[in-house]
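Retro notes - structure team

What went well: the batch runner handled both jobs without manual restarts.
What didn't: labels got mixed up in the shared folder, which is why I'm recording both outputs here explicitly, each with its sequence directly above its tokens.

Job 1
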Amino acid sequence: MPRTKELDPGSSLEEYIGDLVREARRKMINEKGVPWTQQELAIKVFTNDSRISEVERGEDPPDLELARKLESTLKMPHGSLTNLVRILRQENVRDYAKPFIRHRNEATAIHEFSIGIPGLLQTAGYARGAMEAGLAGDEAQIEAYVAARMDHRKLLDKASPPWLVAIIDEAALRRETGGKEAMREQLSHLIQMSKRRTVNVQVLPTQGVAVAGSFTLLTRKSGARTAYTEGFNTGSYVEDQAEVLRFQRVYDLLQQGALSAKESTELMQDIAKDHHD
């Protein structure tokens, strides 16, 4: 259990929310005549004590669903917590990926479907080419994002890396993102990564049915499942289990139409030759 830290409710909205939840929990008395523990609260709101600890430390505020459960269970005034979470979501609209990246770093399994090359498998040349259009040619921003993306790749080099299954739309392999040389390097990197025991790359053929957007399913150490979907300049991190299950069903259908790992490697090798012309 992480050590309790002293919060400064005035330092951030996340810590203010954490302080509210902690104080409300301490006001709830159990049958032994002592305040509820984080574990007792977790059971009542159908999560785990590590999640409650993250909320109370101001490290990972609740989503709207969990906020509603906490507000009701802790007998907090209606809207006192959910309205703050709504405000936080509006303030952090440009930081929508932060909770996803934080949880991805401690995930035991990552399942992705991508209409481009997934970030964890990108080379610098491909990442630079992919970001040039989206960032309107802002060189400083582009290089900062490329450096950050290359740093994120270290996750796969850990002593105990997560299991990664990436389904990639075939069109992403044929599109010359960053130019021919960048694509040759990118495909070579994909082929090499697919040889790792913990990495599985599958290609969804162009004649297969795809979806309009990329999404990721995470399995966290706690066993919790979450989903993240991303589009141009927007994204959504999902903790609601009914929604996560819906993403899982979509992923399963896409995987049924994908080539096997061996067939995918062979196709990537053939496409790499096209980028030499």
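Job 2
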Amino acid sequence: MNFKPFLSIDNQPISITQALAYLRATGDLQPFLLKIIRQHILETELQTQEKLEIDSTIIEQAVIDFRFENQLNDPERFQEWLKAQGISYAEFRHQIIARLKIEKLKAEVTAPKLEEYFKANKALLDQIILSRIVVAAKDFALSLRSQILEDSNRFESLAQEHSLTDDRLVKGIMGPISLGQIPELIRESVATATPGELIGPLEIDGRYTLLRVEQFLPVFLEGSLKQQLQEQLFDQWLQEKAQKMTIKMHVE
């Protein structure tokens, strides 16, 4: 049967049907298709929204920043990099423009919802610093608790001496960690605690844990957290647009 090969491996032609079958066999077909759909949505938005146009000075500065950050200021080194990437300067510049437009689109899409989304999730985004001692037996954990209540300064030395986790090397200190990333049992226990308070022992995965709250660290809508939430909202927006589309595969 004649077909136009999608690619060839050691001169053996691989059809698009066979390539998709390989992806299906490895469980990678759905992620592959989702990437195509996502890129299609982005390309459509970039082509149809005139308000996403980028000023030429911003583009040139982005090119300069990219070359500086990747140590490509030297013209010869930059040309070698372009050759290694298999792209021309025009294609490179087009990629820069597309990235800037996507960032602008992302900001416009997420701006109306970002503050509300942050407030709704802040309780889980706020961070905490904990110290812990993890031991195998409940009776031993209770004994350690009694010693710490008698002398709170002993927590660190007892953690170093008895804790079964690697953080014993740093006197049991954990964190900072987002409250949403810790097990619900711990989160419920520390939610109303005050710095310096001893909690436990709590049974977690067959072991017994003593926790001391060191510090609460409230987060703010800025920096890397703001970017993270923008990414989450933007992904939701892309998924919602994809769900409204009629998508069919035309492969024999």
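One thing worth noting from job 2: Strands lie at 7-9, 12-14, 127-135, 173-178, 198-204, 207-217.
We'll revisit the folder naming next retro.
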